[in-house]
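User: Show me a protein chain along with its predicted structure.
Assistant: Here is one chain, sequence first, then C-alpha cells.
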Amino acid sequence: MDENRYLLLNPGFYDLVIDQEEDVESFCVFFRNDLAGEVLRTLDTLTNGLLTDPYRERNPVEFF
C-alpha cells in the first residue's frame, strides 16, 4: 500500500505484516459485518419502503 491509499477487506481473520526497515504507521477501522448492506439498502430503497419495513434484511455486501 502506498501513502494516501486504503484497503477494504471483507469480514474474516487477517494478519498484518509490515516489511519495512523504517518505522511506519497504520490505522485500522473495523465496522460491524452488516453495515455495508444497511448503507446500500438506504441508498437504493425509497423512503416509504424504509419506513414500512425498517428491519428488512439484505444479502451481505462483499468487496472484490
